[in-house]
Amino acid sequence: MIFDTHAHYLDSRFDEDREELLSSFNSNGIKYVTEVCAAADDIDSVYNFTKKYDFIYGALGVHPSETDKLTENDMNRIKELAMDEKIVAVGEIGLDYHFEDDPSPEVQKKWFIRQMEVAKEVKLPIIVHSRDAAKDTLDIMKDMNAHEIGGVIHCYSYSPEMAREFLNMGFYIGIGGVVTFKNAKKLKEVVEMMPADRILLETDCPYMAPTPHRGERNSSLFIPLIIEEIANIKGLSYDEVADITMKNALTMYGIKE
Ligand code: NI
């Protein structure tokens, strides 16, 4: 069975068939999903979503691109809801320097740090989103003693050398559809060198669909394609990859079955 550790099923691209899709998961080998919050306006919806479905867990936090209007009220709401057992992480939080229109690096850094403090307070791991910001991400995480918090670098996009730094901090690495892309040489190298017991499977759906569905709406039903690729790279069987990554996810999120 499979644990999709990072999904966005509240996205409007699932409005048409959300119910039907989710109900097909168990018979297709998808056992658990973590729904990840990205904007402050969605904090309550993600929480409510985890209450509607037994197999859906939640992560509460605000994506770097959505930090410009954040307030301490939002932090308090996250802390309050994080007491619930279905909320298993603070995320996604981090730095994204890709788009010029996004909040300034200063604003992003401030809220990355603040949300790490919240994670420490509520004793939950963090889901880190980091794009075009490797050095600042690593520096801030070191400053904040992130090894005491734990968590995952989701949709990992940096070098094998940088991966080593995050692994040394005790972090997991989130591997998704990109690993199946022909030109994803760097990411394949990361998977090859890293220990299997630090890999988490993720879709980041509706984004990041694996080959041969690249560009389509992604869903947890495509995770088997990611498993096959990882199994190939690491010389493991399909079931071994599914089992190890299930165990990794349960451990990181602190879920007792
Ligand atoms: Ni995401």
Task: Explain what this protein looks like in three dimensions.
With 257 residues, this protein is α/β, with parallel strands linked by helices. The chain has 9 helices and 8 strands. Helix content is 39%, strand content 17%. Strands 1-2-3-4-5-6-7-8 form an 8-stranded parallel beta sheet. The longest helix has 18 residues, at 105-122. The two termini are 13 Å apart. The structure holds nickel (II) ion (NI).
Please sum up the structure shown.
The chain is an alpha/beta fold and 257 residues long. Helix content is 39%, strand content 17%. The protein is built from nine helices and eight strands.
List keywords for this structure.
257 residues, alpha/beta, globular, binds nickel (II) ion
